[in-house]
Amino acid sequence: MATPTARSILLASPPGQFDLILEDIQSIAPKSLSEDVDVSALRAEWAATTGHAIVETSAADDTTDESNGCIDALRKAMDDYVNLKFTSPGVRAAHRVKQEDGGETITITTYAERIDLANHSVGSWNACYAVNPSLGHISGSVSITAHTFENGGNVQLHSNMSLDETNAECITSNDNADKQLIWAKSIVKQVQAWEDKEVMDKLADMYERMNNEYLKSLRRVMPITRTKMDWNVLAHRVRITLGEGHDKDKLKHQH
User: How many other CB atoms sit within 10 Å of the CB of residue 129?
Assistant: First the structure.
């Protein structure tokens, strides 16, 4: 069993960095601490909690459910959706559709991640939807993680959004395949509407407010010099160099 500190740190690992953080812990922690970490169990727990485990298994692993036309139709519709929406370079995505609660509920889980350690940024998307076909209900939640760590900075963003239950079309396993496919597409249409409007639009609005309100309140609108800050790095380096040269000349004159 891992110590509470090591366990917490590892389970909070950003996408794609569990093993890197484990190496850091093992390099700085006492030998007894690093040996006490049950790596396999923690890695499995981390993968299950974050959703990463989905991309490590194939869609075929989920076909052990009894034959169910509704699930088959929903898997096909989700295949098309994931292949359409998660296509940016470097993005790795997968989904899982499973029967829960004795067949009363179908759970859709989507996980996507983009790991770009060379450019000091990673991110992940974990969405889970619960569908009750017979009652015609669907609800869900989305968890987003972003991590950037360039030039000594280390910032993580965690955003969790709940999507309230709403009505959906009803369907049964006895309905014909065409009707089941239409139903599945309607479920995916609701998922897309939520993700576009309730998630992405709100995130864009939050970023805009952070820039215009929250971050702005943390810095001066105008420096004491009454001159707006020039963020040209080269220009600042030139000024520093000139300043250092000026100070050296001043010291020479004093001597």
Answer: 22
Q: Which residue has the higher pLDDT, 206 or 211?
A: 206
The amino acid at residue 1 is: M
CA angle 85, 90, 93 (to 5 degrees): 45
Ramachandran assignment for 98, one of left (phi > 0), alpha (psi -120 to 50 degrees), beta (any other): beta
Q: Which of 120, 182, 175 lies closest to 153 in space, CA to CA?
A: 120
Of 52, 74, 56, which Cα lies nearest the Cα of 65? 74
Residue 94 has which token pair? 């997968």
What CA–CA distance (Å, rounded) separates 104 from 124? 29
What's the pTM? 0.78
Q: How many other CB atoms sit within 10 Å of the CB of residue 71?
A: 24
pLDDT attached to residue 162: 95
Q: Which amino acid is at 159?
A: S
* E runs forming strands in 117-192: 121-132, 137-148, 155-167
Tell me the C-alpha distance between 11 and 205, whole Å. 29
Are the C-beta atoms of residues 77 and 169 closer than 8 Å to each other? no
Strands (DSSP E) contained in 149-242 are: 155-167
Task: Provide the β-strand partners of residue 51.
Answer: none
CA distance 6 to 229: 42
Q: Are strands 105-116 and 137-148 parallel, antiparallel or unpaired?
A: unpaired
Tens-digit pLDDT profile for residues 80-104: 999 999 999 999 999 999 998 777 8
